[in-house]
Specification:
The chain is an alpha/beta fold. It has helices at 18-23, 47-60, 75-87, 106-113, 125-141, 156-173, 188-197, 214-228, 254-267, 276-288, 311-318, and strands spanning 14-16, 31-35, 65-70, 90-95, 116-119, 146-148, 179-184, 203-207, 240-241, 297-301. It is globular and about 60 Å long. The mean pLDDT is 97.
Length: 322
């Protein structure tokens, strides 16, 4: 078993959200928000938990550079660079876009953190993974010792961080949640929660349009993470909602804007339009349609606020839902 590093501020709070719950027709004491936006590393977010384990594995292997990638506004990229800086190793990041003429959002923070950039042009999920692997080969050829971290840190090792999160939630609630709802990009957070709770029925992953094969990846990664942690094989069938990401990854949706409005005006919580906003839109839909199970519901706040400070969303945010 890998001993995790301490890159994240843990445990994160589990906050009741009764005003938001009332707006969704839920009685007091039913809805909670797990504040994994408060993990601390370079602004916080869910990736810090995964990096606790991934970076421990990298150091154990003698790596001198972390190599990962993502979209232009990747939260995972930002936090991986920060983790490398904390540990005194290099960071090379492969971005699936052309370099912007004017940085905004996460790219501003990435430049401040000062990695080596590879601007690979527009690439889909698996071609980007291939380019990350090629960059690792190029670094080895130059005598470096790279540690490859897939998009989103979505490996069984990374998912161990969300077994820890599941254990925290159980301790904080005093019981298992009836359902935890999380944004589902690369699938690692979803998989780790399933491995921790031991039951697919207790986790709903909301597809944000990043990875095309979540229905296959999540159960496979959950099983592998459970085995690594010496936990029981998870039971049940994977739950992935594919109805809320809109036209494509990162596309603005009216449902997400409404969800951002509810969280902000009822609880003072800021969500992002790409990940947590889409997951919150699903929460609103499931509550409205009375599809939530009885018992406590936990919404996973996985961070991502820097995306609000991009040109794509600056005007969109100004329009308040009626």
């Amino acid at each position: 078993m890998i001993k995790p590093l301490a890159l994240a501020h843990l445990p994160t709070p589990l906050e009741p959200a009764d005003r938001l719950g009332a707006a969704l027709g839920l009685e007091a004491g039913r809805l909670f928000v797990k504040r994994d936006d408060c993990t601390g590393l370079a602004g916080g977010g869910n990736k810090a938990r995964k990096l606790n384990y991934l970076c421990a594995d990298a150091l154990a292997q003698g790596a001198d550079v972390l190599v990962t990638g993502g979209g232009r506004q990747s939260n995972h990229v930002r936090m991986t660079i920060a983790a490398a800086n904390r540990l005194g190793v290099g960071a090379t990041v492969v971005m699936s876009s052309d370099e912007p003429a004017r940085p905004s959002g996460n790219v501003v923070l990435d430049h401040l953190l000062a990695p080596d950039f590879v601007w690979a042009g527009p690439l889909k999920y698996y071609p980007l993974e291939e380019r990350i692997a090629e960059v690792c080969d190029e670094l080895r050829a130059r005598g470096r010792l790279p540690y490859r971290i897939p998009i989103g840190g979505a490996t069984p090792v990374g998912a161990l961080g969300y077994i820890d999160a599941a254990d925290e939630i159980l301790e904080q609630l005093g019981a298992l949640p009836s359902l935890a709802i999380t944004a589902n990009g690369s699938g690692g957070t979803h998989a780790g929660l399933v491995a921790g709770f031991g039951d697919h029925a207790r986790v709903l992953g909301v597809d944000v349009g990043t990875r095309p094969d979540l229905d296959d990846v999540v159960p496979r990664e959950a099983s592998a993470a459970a085995a690594l942690a010496a936990r029981s094989e998870p039971v049940g069938e994977v739950q992935v909602d594919h109805d809320h990401f809109g036209a494509d990854y990162g596309a603005p949706t009216d449902a997400a804007r409404h969800a951002l409005h509810l969280f902000a005006t009822r609880e003072g919580l800021l969500l992002d339009p790409v990940y947590t906003g889409k997951a919150a839109a699903a929460l609103v839909t499931y509550a409205r349609d009375e599809r939530l199970p009885d018992g406590p519901i936990v919404f996973m706040h996985t961070g991502g606020v820097p995306a609000l400070f991009t040109n794509t969303f600056s005007e969109w945010v100004k329009t308040r839902p009626s």
